[in-house]
Amino acid sequence: MSCRTSFRCSKFRHVFGKPSTKEHSYAGVPVTRSVHDNHHCSANPCFIAVVTECAGGGSFLVLPIHHTGRVDPQHPKVCGHSGRVLDVKWNPFDDHCIASCSEDCTVKIWDIPVCGVQQNLTKARKTLIGHCRRVALVEWHPTAQNLLLSSAYDYKVLLWDVSQVASVLRYPVQVVLMPIHHRCPSDALLLSVSFNRDGSRLAVTSKDRRVRVLDPRTGKILQVSSNKSHRASKVLYIGGLKMLLSTGSSPWNHRQIVLWDPADLSEPLYEEDLDGSAGVLFPFYDPDTHMLYLAGKGDGNIRYYELSPDKPYISFLSEYRSLLPQKGLGVMPKRGLDVRACEVFRFYRLIAVNDLVEPLSMIVPRKESDVFQEDLYPMTAGNQAAMTAQEWLQGVNRSPVLMSLNPGTQIANPYPETPAERGLVRQMSPPRFRVDLPVGAVTGPNLDVMQELILSREAFLEEQLAYQDTKYPREVSDLSGWQPDETQVPLWTYCCTPHCREPAEGPPPPSEGELLQAFYRQQDEIRGLREQLNAKDERIDQLELHIKNTRNNMRATF
């Protein structure tokens, strides 16, 4: 507690939290009621994903990052899971790829269209089937491309290479942890995971409330902490300072933060008791500013600190307070922040009581905010992978590829390009969309405006097609081995009503007049059928009377 009273000069001592207005928030989002201690939210510069509550199965909502305001209750969702969704994570190297895990024992990889989800998305690009109980956590590797870690309640921790060709993957590339001789140790049921900066080490907290450091390639446990003075629930690697931070509770059930040396977990470097609340503390760390944020589940406040390699290691800065409790939080990557407003961190608070997702920006006040602040935005991890999954599995370790947040500045990748990046730099084909205006349709000064709109539309369409070409590099003309799928034949090829013609019998009416005549003819037939339906009771009475008379005549005859 002494660090709170000690004065320390820092350029971040005046950082404050600025919540967004209702117009710039996401209202009407049915946030999940799941009791799992996950964030239930993930964000990137293009989209925000929120796990939602639904009647059957599991779903999550994907919204464009600028789609603020009230969300339509019938907005399309990603709803391919048959059980409740427990965690979602965006691929750090692909803003249109997201992983989700569920109580249905599967992990799914989804491709989100450039224009967003326009209809319910039920078919995933990849389905990972390797667990036999519900999957609680998923985490992408920080430097290797297409490498995903999953942890489930079957006491298995698996690594997957989602770049494999098959749409259903049953065998992971690496088994990190698994039960031995059908024994289910509590150290294999993970509560949280965190990779170090280059992904060569994995820190975990387990059901036995201990912190462990693993080698993710072999699953070997390198260090184990003691749970006598600290019962850990969440763990986080402090990149650049060679420390671990864990949050949990003390023997007196006080919420606690502890700093560790990853090379020696026998004794903590620093301990501090915070309060007596019961909610789980979620830690968030910014390696560029060395700022630590602590947000409690069910709390309305967020504390922020500054870390240093020297004692006392941690210095309290300030605290954001709100009356609305948060269910979970999403974090925007640094490349998605507003550098013109001196924004150094951004949360997305899930407020379940109001069905609200509230963006919260952490701002450093500066007099000249329009000028790029180099001291606030050093080189940071970008959206390029440093290596492939196979290179990492072979023992290669590389730091993240850095990028500059200064607009207009580009930094060359110091590592060899991955195959996916080589596909991204393919030259675009000639324009496949052309919009021609009728001669004399637009004249005068409006012609320039129309031409600009057309050019911007063509650029947007070309961007979408370039993304699809990168995702699916096969040419359209390459149809070798293609066979028609008889199970997907449209319904209209099998059945038709008496008022419609089969497509093979003849073309539709060519003119508007003939189309109207066919429409009126169908309306007359429908009206006649409706009149017959309304007269069914009278017709039934007539038939019953006729049957009765027939029977009487037959009796009189005999």
The low-pLDDT segments are 1-7, 422-443, 474-506
**For the report, how would you describe the main beta sheet?**
6 strands, mixed
What structural class is derived from the secondary structure elements? alpha+beta
Tally of strands: 35
Cα shape: elongated
For the record, give the distance between the C-alpha atoms at the N and C termini, rounded to a whole number: 112 Å
Key structural traits:
5-stranded mixed beta sheet, alpha+beta, 558 residues, elongated
Description:
It is a single chain. By secondary structure, the protein is of the alpha+beta class. The protein is built from six helices and 35 strands. Strands 1, 2, 6, 30, 31 and 32 form a six-stranded mixed sheet that branches. It starts with a helix and ends with a helix.
Write a compact overview of the structure shown.
With 558 residues, the protein is α+β, with helices and mostly antiparallel strands. The protein is built from 6 helices and 35 strands.
